[in-house]
Amino acid sequence: MSGFAGPCTVLGGLSLWAECWASGPDYYGEYDAGVDTLYWVKRDGTKGKEISQKMYDKIEKWDEYWQALVTEQVSDYLSYTD
């Protein structure tokens, strides 16, 4: 399993910093990924404090597949900056 991190947006444009994980391939050759932690972004663009459980609940209510959206955004960001 490996980790990666980068900026993302949720709830229609709220900027956050995400720490994600990825693993695979498994027996069937498939990969899996998810979000470990979401953080606020400070005004200077750096990682701030972890968001509250209430915010996690709002994000989950907004889209049940939010982790896939976030990992895709972070992965795309890392691809473009590499």
Written description of the protein model:
The protein is α+β, with helices and mostly antiparallel strands. The protein is 32% helix and 40% strand. It is globular. It starts with a strand and ends with a helix. The mean pLDDT is 93.
Quick overview:
The chain is α+β, with helices and mostly antiparallel strands and 82 residues long. It has two helices and four strands; from the N terminus they run ββββαα. It has one domain (2-77).
Write a concise keyword list for the protein shown above:
82 residues; 40% strand
Spatial separation of the terminal alpha carbons:
20 Å
Please give the largest β-sheet. Answer: 4 strands, antiparallel
Overall spatial form = globular
Provide mean pLDDT, rounded: 93
Strand order of the largest sheet: 1-2-3-4
What is the helical fraction, as a range of percent?
A: 25-40%
Number of domains: 1
Tell me the fraction of residues in β-strands, as a range: 35-45%
Order of helices and strands: EEEEHH
